[in-house]
Amino acid sequence: MPRPTIAIVGAGFSGTLLALHLLRRCPEAIRVTLIERNSAFGRGQAYATGNPSHLLNVPAARMSAFHDQPNDFVDWLRRQPDAEALLAQGFVPRRLFGAYVRALLSEEVKRPENDGRLELLRGDVAGLSKTEAGLTLAMDGDRWLPADLAVLAIGNFPPEPPPCADADFLDGPLYLPDPWAADSFAALPPEAPVLLIGTGLTMVDATISLLDQGHRGPIHALSRRGLLPRRHAATAPRPAPVAALPATLVELVRSLRGEARRAAAGGGDWRPVVDRLRPFTQDVWQALSPADQSRFLRHLRPWWDVHRHRMAGPVADRIEAARASGQLRLHVGRIQTLRQEGGIAELTYRRRGDGETVELRVARVVNCAGPGCDYDRIDHPLVRSLLQAGLVRPDPLRLGLDVTGTCALRDRSGAISRRLFAVGPVTKGSFWEMTAVPDIRRQCEVVAEHLAGIVRATLA
Question: In the record, which residues are listed under signal peptide (predicted)?
Fold first, then answer.
């Protein structure tokens, strides 16, 4: 009799962590198949960067893969070269966290008791269908994988293209749609002006990459509000007291602003007020009405992002120095036109505030506007196949796919799947904060326990 199988599509951080937690909780008779289309398992986009200047945005002490082993990542770091120097800086290179996750996966594969419980399968899943026995995943190379349960852990997708740009420009050599692509800044003359669309953490990473390769030309960063991520405090702030949290947006904002003012009056700042929401953010999000959630996304999301997702101190120092020297120039407005003229990208934008039209001429345009979330617009074979088959649907806020509290996917009619689930950024519409490691870890633990209960009932 074949082993019951849980297939996880995507072996970045979300998928790999879910696999590790499933192996902790599921009966030994269960096989977990972890599928990855790219060359490396365990790293994912965020932690695959080879640049040591790309630092984690969360202190290493809070980055363990296991809630019940809070020092696991720090203990692993202590076994690495230059451990003390790494730990002293608090925010370590992201590539080290990727190496840590890969090490956890390698240890699991090598365990004598594994005995085929964990299978690493390289390939691309192009479609999925329901059968009488369960599910069948259609893979490249005319391969078919039967599974009893499947989990989408497909991570983030590249930003949506600027709507004002024509197809010829978007397909041309001057526009880079993926800021993480290896060729984003290849063959770029060091004096050439560059435009980065967006002013969030992705723009920060792109700027650091340019500085590290010795770029001397102007770096223009444009967004509708021109907000930069704030920096982390030099020392860990004292936690703010936890009070009751209002369930309406107006009252919640009023409460948080009041706490921030009181903290400032007492010699502190706003950071502990934001940080104390971490364990409750998902609960607050789910308590808000759909109208309040939409209102938050329209008006407050950029402000939340720059206060909640902050820069490590050394990174903030370099960004501030680049701004002070005039190399990094922030622009605030909405893009009006974007075209190629004589080997140069010409852009006009309407400046926020006075409405004046401003023109920029640059040698490269890199889209750092944040991941694409509207799944009706995402051109990915598996996503398109699932939507066309009616097995999934976008969530009402267009932040990902529609899931329940236990991450079961809803189909076109809203029915709850008993076999198809999702974890990670794809579930953002239901949980909002689903990008940082502590949030994904909590979700993977909950989903692993839920799926383990399903398979235990099946085997009973």
Answer: none
pLDDT digits (tens, 9 = 90+) for 329-358: 999 999 999 999 888 999 999 999 899 999
Q: What is the pLDDT of residue 267?
A: 87
| Homologous superfamily, domain 167-230+311-367 | FAD/NAD(P)-binding domain (3.50.50.60)
222 touches 349 (CB < 8 A): yes
User: 148: which 2 tokens?
Assistant: 């009893």
CA distance 37 to 41: 9
What is the pTM assigned to this prediction?
0.91
- Phi, psi dihedral angles at 96 (to 5 degrees): -70, -35
Contacts of 198 (CB under 8 A, 6+ apart): 159, 221, 222, 223, 367, 368, 369, 370
CB proximity list for 176: less than 8 A, separation 6 or greater: 183, 184, 364, 365, 366, 367
Structure tokens at 16: 């790999």
Find the distance separating the first CA and the last CA of the chain, reported in whole Å. 15
Give residue 328's Cα distance to chain centre: 25
Q: Please give the structure tokens belonging to residue 157.
A: 């997708």
In this predicted model, what pLDDT tens digit does every residue of 111-140 receive, in sequence order?
Answer: 877 778 999 999 999 999 998 889 999 999
pLDDT, residue 236, reads 64
Same fold, 5-157+373-459 and 167-230+311-367: yes
Beta pairing partners, 348: 337, 359
Residue 335 in 3-state DSSP? strand
- Strand-strand pairing, 5-9 and 344-351: unpaired
Is 415 exposed, middle or buried (CB count within 10 Å of its CB: 0-12, 13-18, 19+)?
exposed
Residue 169 burial (CB count, 10 A) = 21
Sheet strands side by side (includes 135-139): 125-130, 135-139, 143-147
CA distance 272 to 251: 19
For the segment(s) 5-157+373-459, the CATH number from 3.40.50.2300, 3.90.420.10, 3.90.79.10, 3.50.50.60 is: 3.50.50.60
Instruction: Tell me if 70 sits within 8 A of 64, measured CB to CB.
Output: yes
Please check the confidence at residue 67 and state whether its pLDDT lies above 70: yes
Q: Which of 209, 249, 200, 255 is nearest to 229 (CA)?
A: 200
Q: Is 25 left (phi over 0), alpha (psi -120 to 50) or beta?
A: alpha
- Count CB neighbours of 83 within 10 A: 13
Spell out the domain ranges in the chain: 5-157+373-459, 167-230+311-367, 249-308
Amino acid identity at 203: M
Residue 180 has pLDDT above 70, yes or no: yes
Q: Residues 112, 98, 230, CA angle at the centre, nearest 5°?
A: 150
